[in-house]
Design brief:
alpha+beta, 7 helices, 5-stranded antiparallel β-sheet, Chorismate synthase, AroC fold, homotetramer
C-alpha cells in the first residue's frame, strides 16, 4: 500500500535512502531451484554504475551487493531473497542547504508536504536514484526465472538530447555493449557532442529508451484492469524521470486507421506485422513485446534556479554535489529490470492456469 | 490477482460479458455518508452511450443501472456498493463466425491461448467494451469522494484521425458538452469530414485524449513503485485501445534540457510553470495533473482481413455486426472514470498520514 | 482492504444487506474449463436454508441464485463469476425499533461507531447472516476446483448446547444427511430436548463444529505469515458467531508433552498419528486437515435485555422478528465453504511451484 | 502471496534463515514523525532472548539489531524501516543429519514436499524460530503507533505443562517482569517443578498464553471477511507452535446460552460484562480485547523418534543441538508483537473513515 513493493506472486519490497546505512530489497515468491549467486546480481549492478558512458556522475562506490537470505548451496530455496548494498560514499556535507531549500523538479517539496514536514533530505533520501539498486538486483532474479522459458529482454537508448537513432540502424540486442547503451553503433559519436554542449551550458538531457522482450509465450497478462501493458506501464512509470510510455505503435497509432494498424494473423501463432507491440486485449500474443519510454532531463542542473525554502520564502538555489548529466544510460538497466519483474510475475501467475 | 479488480483502499471489482446476462461491479471502500443515487450513476453512464457524437455504434440499449447494495436512505453506508446493468440487446446471431475465427487486433486469439481454448466469443465476451460500464459507474462514486475535496476532472479529445486541436484553442472544461467530447469548439466540424471519409473506406480512426485533474492537494501518491503517475498510467492503460500515456510534457520532455523542463517553485505552494504535469517524485504537487492518452483505431473494420481459425487454417474475415468507428468519444468518460478511481484511492490512502 | 473480499488467487468479493435489494458476490480467479451450473450452487444454498433441523428461523425465502457472468455453455471461462440472490421477504416493519436501539451481542453499536453514525439497521444490514449466501455460493465453485484433485470437505456438529458427541460415535462424512448436520446419528435426539428447553426459556444455544478436509496433497500453505492454519483460522473466524478455532489437538496439545504430541513419520508419506491436524510448519502434510470451531449462542434472545439507544440513554429491548435458536446448523455449510475457499486458493497458489 | 508479509497499510516483510547470514525485515507504512531508536527495538528483542526463565535454550547470541532505513534524526520518515540481525552463532555441525532425515513435528518434510526437494535444513532454515526476530522488531514499531492512542498490550502465560493459573490470581500487566512471563506471581514456582520433570524425561511442554489489548477505540476491524478477530487469529496462528486461538469466552461460549453470553450495553460506551472479548460483529467495541492462544509442546524432544529419510526409508532420529524445553516464554513477546501489528494496521486503516 505504501509504495515500496511491486509485483503480485513475485514481489519486491525495497528500502533504503541515499545517505542512510544502505539500500536493499527483499524479493518474495521466487521459485525454488534456480541457480543464483552474488556475482550474478553484482554483474547487473555494475551495469548501472557511474562509470558507464560519458554522461555519468563521478560518485565512486563499489556497490558490493550482499545476499542475506533465500539461497542455499547456490540454489534459490523458495524463501524471500534479501540483498543489501552499503552506502559507502556518504558525503553529507554536499547536501547541507537541502535541509532548507526545495530543489525544482525533485521530490523535495512534495515529500515535505506528504510526510508532514519530515524527510531525509540528504541526497534526495528515499527519492534518490540509489533506490534503483534494489530494482536491478531483483531484476537479475526475475531474468533467471524468464531464462527458464528462454525469454530475453533488450533495452537501449533510441534518442538523446533530441537526437534520434534512425529506425533502420536500430540494434537493441547490441545496446548493452555500447556507450549510452545506444541502440545503434553510430549514435554515441553524435551524442558525445550533444553531451559536451549541455555540460558546458550547465544543463542536462533527456532521452527515449526502447525495450524489447522476446520469446514471451502467448497468454501472459490478465483481462480488464491488469492488462499486460497496464502492468508494464506501471512498472516503468514508477522509475524516477520517466514521463511517458507507449506500446507497439503507441502514440503513432492514434494517427493510423484500423486497416493500417491491425496485425493480420498467420498460421502457426504468427502475425504479418507487430504494430500491437506483442499484446492484444491485454494478453501477450507471442510476438515481441515492444515498449518506448520517455525520460525527462535530470532536474539537477548546474545553474541558479528560483525556488522557495521551508519558510515559504523565495530563494535561489545552485545545486552542488555530483550529478549525472542524463538519466541515460543508468536508467536503462533499471527499465530492463522492471520489465523483467513484471513479466516474471505474469509468468508465475499464468501457471495457475496449467491443467491440473 | 486475476485482473478484474482495481484500487487499494477504494477497490472496484467488475464482472460480466457482452452477451451474457449483464455487466456490473462492486466498489468496496467508499466512506460512509456520501450522497449517492441511482440517477447519479445513470447520468454518467448515459455519457458513454452509443448516441453521442457522429462516430458511434447504432446498438440500442437503455443500460439502466441498478444499485444492489451499499446505499441506505440516499447515503453510502461504507459497505460495498454493487451495481448492475442487464444486457438487453443480445443479438448473438451477429457473432456466429466468431466462434471459429480470430479477429485481428482483438483479444480473440490471446484469450483462446490464455484460457486453454475456452472463451465466450459472443461480441468479444469479457473483452468487449461493455465492461467499461462498471468503470464508469464506479467512477461516479469516486468523483463524489473527490468532490468533498473540490477535486474536478476534465477529459476531452485533442486529436482524431490525425487532426489535432491547436493548443491555443484547447478548452477541456467544455469538452463534455461537445460532439466527440472535443476539447475545442471548432474541432467537431473538422472531424466530421474525417469520419465520413473513414466510414466510406470501411475503416476506423484513433485519437488522443487529454485528462486534467484540478484542485488535487499536494501529497497524493506513494514513493518508489506506486508513484502517482505509475498508478494513473496503470489505470488508463488498462482501458482497451489505449496504447500510450504521458504526463505533463511527456515524450516532448525527452527533447528538452533540464533548464527548459524544470518548474521553478514560488511561494504559496505555486509553481512558475507546470511542465511536470502536477506530479513530482511520484507525489502530487498541488498543480493540475495533466495526462495525454493515445487511443488506437478500433480493430473492427468493415473490410476483409487475413486471419486464422481455431484449426490454425488461414481465413478471411469480414466482421459484421454494429461497431463504433472510433473509440472516441465513448472512451473519454471511461478514462475520466479511471482517473477518478485512481485519485480517490490515493486520497483515501493519504488519510492514514493525518495526525492522530 | 475494506473487508469484503477473501482470498489471493481465488478471490471472493461479496455485497448486499439483509433488507436491501439482494445479496451476491463475485469470485475472481476460477480457472477455465470447470463444469458449473446454477443448480450446483443452488443445491449448496439450499443446505443453509431455514428449513433444516429443528433450530431454524421461520423466515421463508426461495433464495434462488442467478449466475450473472463467467460461465459459458456450462463451463467456467476464467472470468469473474458473479452470482446474485434477490431478497424476497423484506418485512422491514419487524425492525423499526432497531433504528434507535442497539441490540446486545450484535454489530449494531460497533458499526454505528465505525461508520460515523450511518448504518442500514434493517435486519442487521450488512452484518446479517444473509451475507453468508455469497460464501456458500463461492464455496460451491471452490469445491469444484478441489474435486479435480479429489479433495473432499466434511463438516458437522460435534456439540450443541453443551451436549457433546462421544468421540467414538463421530461420523463427519454422514453429517450432511442428518438434522443439525450432526456428526453422529444418535445426537439429534439428545439435542432436540435441549433445543426445546432453550426455546421455552426464550434463550439460544451455541455449539462446536468439526471440519475435515481429506485428500489434501502435501505442500499447500505458505511459510511464516500465511501458514495454512493461519489462513484457515482467518477464514472460519470471519464467520459471524465464531469465537474460537483449533487445529488438530488444538487447545488439548497445550497439556501434552512433545513425546505425546509428535506424529512419527512412516514411509510412503504416511504418519503414525495425526495430532497435528494435517499441517506441519504451516504446510499441509497430506494427512486429513482437522479443525474445530467454537460457535457462540445467537445474540437475539426472546427476552428483555439492557442496552442503550442512539442518544446514549439506557433502554430495555425485546427483539422481535424471526430468529434462529442457534447458528447450528446453518453455519455449517458456511464453514465448509470457507474451508473450501481457503484450500482452493492455496491449491492454485501452489501451482506456481510446478516445474516449468 | 508467498507468505512472508503480514498487514495491509502497515506491512511487514521478513526474511532470513536460522543459519544463513542473518534475519531481518522491512516494515512499510509506518507514519512519519514517530520517535524510534535502535535501542527501542533492542529492548523488545532482548525479551525473547534465550536467557529468560528456566525453560530456554543455551544458545548464546547477542542478537544486536541494526536499523538500515526509514529513520532520520530519531524520527520515522514514512519510508520503509528495515532492520537486520546477524546470525552470530552458526554451529552448522550440529545439524548434519538433518540434511537427510525429517524431524517429526517440524516443517522438514512438508517444506521438502512444497519446494520440490530443496530446503535449507540447517537449524530448520526459514522455519526456525529465529524468523520471529523480525516479528518482534516490527512489533516495537507497531506499539509506538498504538501508544499515540494510549493502546497497550499485555501478554502472559496462563498455563504451562497442564498446570493453569487460577483466574482470581491472574495479573497480565505484571507478566513481563516474571519468569515464564507468568500471569501470576505464584505460578513460576509450580512450573519450575513441572519443567524439571520434563527435562529429566527428555520431553517438552506446551502452554496457554493470554493476550489483552487495552484502550482500543471502538471501530477497528472490517466487516465480513476481515473481522478484527479473524485478522487477530491469522496473526497469532501464523506463529509456529500455535494450535488454537479464542476470543473472549471462546470455546466456553459454545456451552452458554445467549442470555448468559451477551454483554448488556451501558451508557458512555460501557458494557456490563466483556464476554465478547472486546469485539462485536468483527469491530472493536472499546472494551479490552482478550485472546487466548494454545501453544503445543516443542517438537524437538531429547528422545529417539521414528521417522523417515529423503529416500523414504524408516529411520530413528535423536535430535541433538540446543533446544528450548517449551515455546513458553519466548513465544510471548512474539504473540504480543503480532497483536500489535494487527491492531496498528487496523488503526491506520480506520483513519480513512475520518471526516475530510
Amino acid at each position: 500500500m505504501s509504495g515500496n513493493s511491486f509485483g503480485r506472486l513475485l514481489r519486491l519490497t525495497s528500502f533504503g535512502e541515499s545517505h542512510g546505512p544502505g539500500v536493499g530489497g527483499v524479493l518474495d515468491g521466487c521459485p525454488s531451484g534456480i541457480e543464483l549467486s552474488r556475482a550474478d546480481i553484482q554483474a547487473d549492478l555494475d551495469l548501472r554504475k557511474p562509470s558507464l558512458g560519458s554522461t555519468s556522475t563521478k560518485r565512486k562506490e563499489s556497490d558490493k551487493v550482499r545476499l542475506l537470505s533465500g539461497v542455499f548451496r547456490g540454489l534459490t530455496t523458495g524463501m524471500p531473497i534479501a540483498f543489501y548494498v552499503v552506502n559507502e560514499d556518504q558525503r553529507s556535507r554536499d547536501y547541507g542547504e537541502l535541509a532548507e531549500v526545495f530543489r525544482p523538479g525533485h521530490a523535495d517539496w512534495t515529500y515535505f508536504q506528504k510526510f508532514n514536514g519530515i524527510r531525509d533530505y540528504r541526497g534526495g533520501g528515499r527519492a534518490s536514484g540509489r533506490e534503483t539498486i534494489a530494482r536491478v538486483a531483483a531484476g537479475t532474479i526475475a531474468k533467471k526465472i524468464l531464462q527458464r522459458h528462454k525469454i530475453v529482454i533488450f533495452a537501449g537508448c533510441m534518442e538523446l538530447g533530441g537526437i534520434p537513432i534512425s529506425p533502420d540502424e536500430t540494434d537493441l540486442a547490441g545496446a548493452v555493449t555500447r556507450p549510452y547503451f545506444a541502440a545503434s553503433s553510430t549514435a554515441p559519436a553524435m551524442w558525445d557532442a550533444r553531451v559536451e554542449e549541455a555540460r558546458a551550458a550547465g544543463d542536462t538531457l533527456g532521452g527515449i529508451v526502447a525495450i524489447m522482450a522476446g520469446n514471451v509465450p502467448a497468454g501472459l497478462g490478465e483481462p480488464v484492469f491488469d492488462k499486460l501493458e497496464a502492468v508494464l506501464a506501471h512498472a516503468v512509470m514508477s522509475v524516477g524521470a520517466v514521463k511517458g510510455v507507449e506500446v507497439g505503435n503507441g502514440f503513432a497509432s492514434a494517427q493510423l486507421t484500423g486497416a493500417q494498424n491491425n496485425d493480420p494473423l498467420l498460421p502457426g501463432g504468427k502475425f504479418a506485422s507487430n504494430r500491437a507491440g506483442g499484446i492484444l486485449g491485454g494478453i501477450s500474443s507471442g510476438q515481441d513485446i515492444v515498449l518506448r519510454v520517455a525520460v525527462k532531463p535530470i532536474a539537477s542542473i548546474a545553474r541558479k534556479q528560483h525556488t522557495v525554502d521551508k519558510q515559504d520564502r523565495p530563494r535561489e538555489i545552485l545545486i552542488g554535489g555530483r550529478h549525472d548529466l542524463s538519466a541515460i544510460p543508468r536508467i536503462i538497466p533499471v527499465l530492463s529490470a522492471m520489465t523483467a519483474l513484471a513479466l516474471a510475475d505474469a509468468l508465475l501467475l499464468q501457471k495457475r492456469m496449467d491443467p491440473c
